[in-house]
Design brief:
By secondary structure, the protein is of the alpha+beta class. It contains three helices and six strands, in the order H-H-H-E-E-E-E-E-E. It has a six-stranded mixed β-sheet.
Length: 109
């Protein structure tokens, strides 16, 4: 099987975003490049509105309501899961890694 041709391009971002991505990539066991390609591959795939518009979006920990289990994203309330399963950290930021119906799965970054 032939390997798909790859394209290189320069990506600029502020240092704080780079550090967050670096930490998330390390936690995921990937290089920063592989981590970004993985996120972009998931968001570029065809799917429902939530998958196309929300996966990869960053949400502050303060938006995750531990009492109700709901989070407000793009003007819509969703149930949420955290990966790994733990209590939300109000001081952290989370990225949406999956959308399944009215349930969004978040990972701390």
């Amino acid at each position: 099987m032939a390997k798909e041709k790859q394209k290189r391009f320069l990506l600029r971002m502020d240092e704080s975003l780079f550090e967050k991505l670096s930490q998330a990539a390390t936690a995921d066991g990937r290089s920063i490049n592989a981590y970004i390609v993985n996120i972009l591959s998931k968001t570029a795939a065809p799917g429902n509105w939530e998958t196309r518009q929300l996966v990869g979006r960053t949400v502050p920990g303060t938006a995750l309501d531990a009492k109700t289990g709901l989070v407000l994203v793009a003007g819509i309330y969703y149930r949420y899961l955290l990966e790994p399963r733990e209590a939300p950290d109000a001081d952290a930021e989370y990225t949406i890694i999956e959308s399944n119906g009215n349930i969004l799965t978040f990972k701390k970054i």
